[in-house]
Queue: 2 jobs
Job 1
Amino acid sequence: MRAAWTIAGRELVSYFATPVAAVFIVIFLALQGALTFNLGNFFARNQADLAPFFTFLPWVLLLLVPALSMRLWAEERRAGTIEMLLTLPITAFQAVLGKFLAAWAFCAIAIVLTFPFVLTVNYLGSPDNGVIACGYLGAILIAGCYIALGGALSAVTRNQVIAFVLAVAACFVVTASGTPLVTDFLARGAPALAEIARRISVADRYQGMTRGVIQLRDLIYFASFSGFFLFLTTVVIDHRRAN
């Protein structure tokens, strides 16, 4: 585990050693601000809460997190540094976990930097900060799922653009599948498919957390989702090492 933390620390520092961190965070904050206060009619609603903020957050992460995850392994393969990494006295899982933790920590930092939104609603009224905290927890867990999924897709290609497109498409599917538009459409002809779509959706569980409801089954789902794709990434990397 120490090796994974070492890799995570190195990777996290590398984000802030380049313009990547600043560009990602600025775009993320700008999009969230514009969507929350303009498209989300924050002031017109006349309610001191962050419902618009949490409504748009998964969709913003869906676009930005793949831009982060696409370089996790595709860049290593393109540059030929993956061979050097895998010759170190570490397991493939430790390498995968370290890179995942670094990217997840970076996303968590970006999400936490939206704290001025929390200060704003507390200045304007008396929101339920417990509900807000649950929403933030859900956002960080969704970011972890997107990173794990994007990392697995990044491991199968050396082209970052392909990794990005595949990750956006896959993240869109696991997010949109639980929306009423999709489930209602499927329910008309295939109720069983509608239920499956709802169960595999990260958005369905996230919505509960934005209302302040944290259920053990939802936490297990997020952990299982990320763990499954970390396992797949490890299998792919081990295969690369063997060959």
Job 2
Amino acid sequence: MKGTPDKAKTIQEVALQAAVAYSLPHDMEPFLDETSYCHPPNCTFPFGTHVCLVEVDKDTGRVEVKRYIAVDDVGKVINPMVVDGQVHGGIAQGLAQALYENAVYDENGQLVSGSLMDYAIPTAAMVPTYETARTETPSPTNPLGVKGAGETGTIASAPAVVNAVIDALSPMGVKHLDMPLTSEKVWRAMNQK
């Protein structure tokens, strides 16, 4: 073929020669290495609000998310489906952290919730339909005007859920509960004497 070099090397062969440096000139050091630092003129942060409505069963302590609304500003949106997927997945992760996921250790530090039989991860049936929207305020610190989107759902959802539960339990004098808000933990808080 025209333009095909007479000799070729695989990436593994190039890496080996760079590492062992058998045939490098004496004034050159081995290894392929490059470092570059980016110092943007300023940082920008996405912003928004997440609101959660829950119902707590007074007999069992079970928390059911009845409605979840999220509005985020992640700057200029290049691919709406990707942004929506990141927000939806983040909300599911935050709901799981707030209500279900719990790493439990015994008195010797041994993990006793090390399988999916012991560590609750929500199923699709346990996650509500989200109502999402967004505004677009372009970031002034990059040419695309984009901001972060991957963490908005994760960061906002756990406190939104926990605050909704605490608000529901506040007439019973409950002011604080540590995550996860399992049914047993919520039931005990409601029935404290």
